[in-house]
């Protein structure tokens, strides 16, 4: 499987895409009219679809007198403050956050059967109560509350209400523990503010894993003290010849902190043994012939490999994984392992046998792209499947056998949830090696039954990767991610029984005005009945 076919004139294609992005980024969004919400948003009109709703009663109306009351430790207070921060600009209300009080919006933790991320939302004339067992559950409840308010609540200037929340009870919890999005910061570098912007967008859809693809042929994006040229030299470039960049350790900690404040875990990836030209260019001793190649700004894949027979390779891997693990409060280190076309298979197996234990030594669990199942996945490792409908039966069977043997899967089928695939032949940016992926196709599959021979219990969740060969702005990211990201989030969160394209497309349409209000540059797919702007 190759991400790119060698036959396309690379420079022309990338330049063309960048021009399209530049044009897209320059568009200004038309100002949406102020909300004149007659009836409140029905409780089940959210994305991802909730497990169950029981409507009934008198809607709650947020007013100038509304307070946000919190019952729980400081973290609950912090979530209340976050909620107030979301609602104050558009409502213009003070929304004080207090540890006591009646009515209004109450956030409380209890020992109930809500699961690690579930929650209950109850709304009536006197107020709205959000209940969960964990702060993560309360945070997700806040995202639901937000979607139950008119889209104009997302604006940064005072808007006309009324700010009603439909009455009734909503019960919710995720289908899968792992609901991810990947951002490739290697092909084009994205700054800390750009990553934070994406994190906020992910949080709105209850995504809880941010996978950062931190190294590739075109760039090394994280400072490593023991190998400083990786970032200072290997990071100083990107696809198309731009300046690139890298995260200092302080930058990276800030991303991790911000993600945690939105209840996302960061999964760092250092792709090995292929996709390593930036590292090979930075240190001659990592090359079998001792000669550093030039930096690379194209978009081909499969031409680079670490030198599997050299001790320096394992010193490098140990140092990088140790420093990365020390920066990572999360559970995982992603080792990549895809498209190692310039590494002999026996060498690939040998390399993975030596490098996976380093991840365990530094207290983390391995994730690898599903090619890892062709080696010996470490105990507890997760494999990330990125095949397509046409992936060969033998490859699928290998993944399924690994899943039955305990290597659980993250599903990222490229012809469904690779967010960098073009929607149609006429939309740009994006690539199309896995096909054109419109919104319906992206949504309409079941992770639980997707791969034959994989026990449902071996599916840990869904992740939507966004490779960045053709995007270098937030507008570019957003155009590819929205609306498909919302569908991937629903596949990860909502029970299979709630999957239904005809209902989904209407719920999705209701997100359009919210994205307009947030300034998110999205693709207005003709498959979705968007309200007129
Ligand atoms: C991949 O798209 N090479 C994981």
Please characterize this protein's 3D structure.
- With 533 residues, the protein is of the alpha/beta class.
- The protein is 33% helix and 17% strand.
- The protein is built from 16 helices and 19 strands.
- It has helices at residues 10-26, 74-91, 135-148, 192-204, 229-232, 249-261, 277-282, 311-327, 345-361, 393-404, 414-417, 439-443, 474-481, 484-493, 501-509, 512-518; strands at 52-55, 60-62, 68-71, 97-98, 104-109, 119-124, 127-132, 163-165, 168-172, 178-184, 209-213, 215-216, 219-220, 265-272, 332-336, 365-369, 382-385, 408-411, 459-466.
- The protein has an 8-stranded parallel β-barrel with strand order 10-11-14-15-16-17-18-19, surrounded by 7 helices.
- A hairpin with a 2-residue loop joins strand 6 and strand 7.
- The longest helix has 18 residues, at 74-91.
- It is globular and about 75 Å long.
- The two termini are 41 Å apart.
- Residues 1-37 have low confidence and may be disordered.
- Acetamide binds at residues 3, 338-339, 369, 386.
């Amino acid at each position: 499987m190759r991400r790119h076919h060698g036959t396309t004139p690379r420079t022309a294609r990338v330049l063309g895409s960048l021009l399209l992005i530049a044009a897209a980024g320059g568009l200004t969004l038309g100002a949406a009219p102020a909300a004149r919400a007659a009836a409140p948003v029905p409780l089940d009109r959210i994305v991802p679809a909730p497990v169950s709703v029981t409507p009934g009663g008198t809607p709650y109306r947020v007013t100038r007198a509304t307070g946000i009351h919190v019952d729980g430790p400081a973290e609950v207070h912090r979530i209340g403050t976050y909620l107030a921060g979301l609602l104050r600009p558009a409502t213009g209300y003070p929304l004080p956050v207090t540890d006591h009080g009646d009515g209004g919006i109450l956030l409380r933790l209890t020992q109930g059967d809500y699961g690690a991320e579930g929650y209950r939302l109850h709304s009536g004339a006197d107020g709205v109560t959000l209940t969960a067992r964990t702060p993560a559950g309360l945070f997700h409840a806040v995202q639901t509350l937000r979607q139950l308010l008119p889209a104009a609540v997302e604006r940064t200037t005072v808007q006309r209400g009324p700010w009603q929340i439909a009455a009734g009870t909503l019960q919710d919890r995720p289908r899968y523990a792992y609901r991810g999005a990947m951002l490739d910061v290697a092909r084009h570098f994205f700054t800390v503010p750009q990553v934070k912007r994406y994190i906020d967008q992910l949080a709105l859809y209850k995504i809880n894993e941010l996978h950062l693809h931190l190294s590739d042929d075109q760039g090394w994006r994280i400072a490593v003290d023991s190998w400083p040229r990786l970032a200072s030299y290997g990071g100083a470039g990107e696809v198309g010849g731009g300046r690139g960049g890298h995260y200092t350790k302080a930058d990276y900690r800030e991303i991790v902190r911000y993600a945690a404040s939105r209840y996302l875990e960061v999964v760092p990836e250092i792709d090995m043994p292929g996709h390593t030209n930036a590292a090979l260019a930075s240190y001659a001793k990592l090359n079998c012939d001792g000669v550093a190649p030039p930096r690379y700004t194209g978009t081909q894949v499969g031409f680079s490999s670490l030198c599997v027979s050299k001790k320096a390779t394992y010193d490098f891997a140990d140092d990088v994984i140790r420093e990365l693990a020390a920066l990572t409060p999360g559970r995982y280190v992603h080792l990549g392992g895809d498209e190692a076309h310039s590494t002999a298979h026996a060498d690939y197996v040998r390399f993975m046998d030596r490098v996976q234990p380093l991840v365990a030594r530094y207290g983390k669990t391995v994730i690898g792209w599903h090619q890892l199942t062709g080696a010996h996945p470490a105990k507890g490792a997760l494999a990330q499947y990125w095949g397509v409908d046409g992936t060969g039966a033998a490859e699928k069977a290998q993944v399924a056998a690994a899943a039955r043997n305990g290597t659980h899967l993250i599903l990222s089928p490229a012809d469904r949830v690779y967010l960098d695939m073009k929607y149609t032949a006429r939309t740009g940016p994006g690539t199309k090696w896995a096909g054109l992926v419109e919104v319906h196709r992206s949504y309409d599959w079941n992770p639980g039954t997707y791969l034959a021979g994989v026990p449902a219990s071996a599916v840990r969740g869904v992740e939507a990767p966004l490779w960045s060969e053709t995007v270098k702005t937030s507008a570019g990211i957003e155009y590819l991610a929205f609306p498909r990201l919302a569908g991937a989030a629903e596949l990860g969160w909502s029970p299979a029984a709630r999957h239904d394209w005809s209902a989904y497309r209407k719920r999705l349409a209701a997100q359009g005005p919210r994205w307009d209000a947030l300034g998110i540059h999205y693709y207005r797919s003709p498959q979705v009945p968007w309200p007129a702007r």
